[in-house]
Write a structure and sequence with these properties.
It is a single chain. This protein is mostly helical. It has a domain of 50 residues. It is built from three helices and no strands. It is globular and about 40 Å long.
Length: 75
């Protein structure tokens, strides 16, 4: 598998932005599902309005990483 390091760097930068904005989050899974659902809704909205969806996808991916981080903190 080939990895695009530029995208990974963008993802890490987005995670940093999220932590700066919201702090470290340790939600229960049902809350993470709601957050990710909202993010996915923003992707869908951008798509249906013919807007650029890349930033919304990046934000959603960063939420998934944050959720994984929260799960790992539980262990």
């Amino acid at each position: 598998m080939e990895t695009n390091n530029g995208i990974i760097k963008e993802l890490l930068n987005e995670r940093e932005k999220q932590d700066e904005k919201f702090g470290i989050q340790n939600h229960i899974d049902s809350k993470w599902i709601a957050i990710l659902g909202e993010e996915f809704g923003e992707i869908c909205k951008a798509y249906t309005e013919n807007l650029l969806i890349r930033e919304e996808i990046l934000q959603s991916a960063a939420v998934c990483v944050a959720w994984l981080e929260a799960i790992d903190r539980r262990i």
